Amino acid sequence: MSFVHPKLRPRFETLSPELRAAILDRNVKIYTLQDLIRVLEEIVSEAS
Length: 48
Hints:
Blueprint (H helix, E strand, L loop, with lengths): L2 E2 L4 H5 L3 H8 L4 E2 L2 H15 L1
């Protein structure tokens, strides 16, 4: 089950619904901004 730290929730909510779903489908734990960036970089690299 994925987790987004409450302090990062406002930043997370600015992402598109499709991107949020893609992140949550990965079953990741996001505690810091760096965690969020890492997951986004993984998604971008897989799309390339």
